[in-house]
Design a protein that fits this description.
Layout (H helix, E strand, L loop, with lengths): L6 E5 L1 E5 L2 H7 L8 E4 L2 E2 L10 E4 L4 E6 L4 E5 L1 H9 L11 E6 H4 L3 E3 L7 E6 L11 E4 L5 H12 L1 H4 L14 E2 L6 H8 L8 H18 L1 E2 L9 H14 L3 E5 L1
Parallel strand pairs: 3-7, 5-10
Antiparallel strand pairs: 1-4, 1-14, 2-3, 2-9, 5-11, 6-7, 6-8, 9-10, 12-13
Bound molecules: ligand A2H.
The site of ligand A2H has 20 residues, from strand 4, strand 11 and helix 7.
Amino acid sequence: EGVLPQEYTALKLKVVEWAPKAAESLKGKIPDGVSVYLCPATLRPETMYGQVCCFVGPSLSYGVFMASEKEYFVITERAARNMAYQGIFENEGVPEKAADIVGSDLIGTVVHAPLSFHPQVRVLPMESVLATKGTGVVTSVPSDSPDDFAMVTELAKKPDFYGIKKEWAELEIIPIIQTPTSDLLAPHLVKKLKIASPKDAKQLQEAKELAYKEGFYQGIMKVGDFKGEKVEVAKPKVREQLIQNGEAFAYSE
Ligand code: A2H
């Protein structure tokens, strides 16, 4: 972990339909009229137009925490403690947990992804999601994140192995940011560095650094309300818009 706090944008992906296992395990634990959200932490709010799915660690433990009377968040216990400390929850003190749920039971759940060209996306597995970072939930933007592109490619290749439907991992990847190299920077870099799977950690790290630098310093928005503006300029504006709309909140660690 670095010395400076990381300022994330935590997105609110509202659950539209629980996967059967999640529905079973949560039965009777969520009061009627409550909206439940998966809350991925991101450093790239300006890419949210390109969300195609939402990753959880299949073997990670999550809780369903009460943010307010009407809104519950699916996040790790660790993130819930941090959020409580940061005053994100309505109640003070120890966060109230309505239920426990393992990541694998969430796979297949349909969520609403704010700003995305694909308003409804599925929860899918990613082994490399860390319990020790962010909320343990990661929204997937394969156009601009090499990790995300490598993972959705892997999921579409072996849907049976991962216990998912192939089409859940095959939503169209739409260009969001134009850079001097490409308007689909992550797929471009994954191919160029010959990354064959999410296990190619070393090349993925390199791709991630290249994509982040080029996207941030040389990227131009191709879509959305800030189309034509530099990423550097658009990033805080998209973030503010999401927060104003109640679709995201500031989270740091
Ligand atoms: B980013 P940093 Cl388009 N485990 O969001 C693994 N990865 C996690 C995580 C966890 N528990 N929590 C967050 N992340 C990912 C978008 C994105 C991201 C794009 C491009 C690059 C990128 C869409 N996924 O991150 O270690 C989240 O993915 C590359 C740095 O705190 C989050 O932002 O610097 C980023 O890692 C936070 O990484």
